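Folding follows sequence. Below is one example:
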Amino acid sequence: MSMPNQKEKLKIIYQLLFDLATGRKTVALDMGSLDDEYDSILLSLSEQGERIRSLVLEQGMVIPYSNFQHLSQFVFVLDAHYTIVDFNFTVVDRLKYTSEAIQSLLFESLLDDSSKLVWNNLLQQVGSDAPFFVTTELLFLTVDGFKLPLFCSVSSSLVNPFVFVLSAEVVFKDVPFLKDIPSVATEKAKAEAAVIDQVHAYILEHLDVPLPSLKSIALLFGSEEHKIRHGFREHYHTSVYQFYQDERLKKAYLLVLQTDLPLKEIAFQCGFGVYLNFYKAFRKKYGFSPSELLRG
């Protein structure tokens, strides 16, 4: 297996930062040797993540978990010459351009030099005759010079001579941060917090299978049903089942948006044995069906 290059290492660094910021459990990294500054940062972040988790659990608290509320969508409409003819508010808000500055710009003018090459190669591959739908990662430049990486879908209109560039950015809920740290954490409080944290991690790691009963979960972690029920709601402000349901539907949303998997396969990978149950749950949560999201 080839060693990750610097760009891949940078992606891992950002993933670790994301995990630390949102309370997700960081994956232990196998760092055989430190070859460059990227490796040193990776090792430091991994170690700090474990130290933070240990400190929080030592106080008898559960790791705070930040959840995304919705996806903020970027929408660009381009003409046959790939000039921007329309866009939504998110584009202006995040890239910090005025509407007047973006209107009639060549789309590639918003891209970093490396992404301009990616964009032009993409256009050569798809041509201009047949309808197309492709996905790629592009680096956008904000007015103040920062780079904003976005995973984009690029597709042609079947009716008009337009090209649509769509992307989505995660928007997080405001969640309470750590509770006031108690002056003395009892061993009982530490143990109960550790169990709730383990249940939380177990759910996230098993979104592809049906959730066991609360009684079975309690037995699995050597606890009691009522302790897990009340402890989970106290720390995460939702029930065990509702958390599982929300997380697997969010996983499904991203799979529909970012992969070419059939909808029935996505339902299966998100723990739904019957597609109709998946369809109903998805529509209830988001207000539209999986197929409607797929069509854009």
Observations:
- DSSP finds twelve helices and five strands in the chain.
- The longest strand covers residues 68-78.
- Residues 68-172 form a domain with the Beta-Lactamase fold (CATH 3.30.450.20).
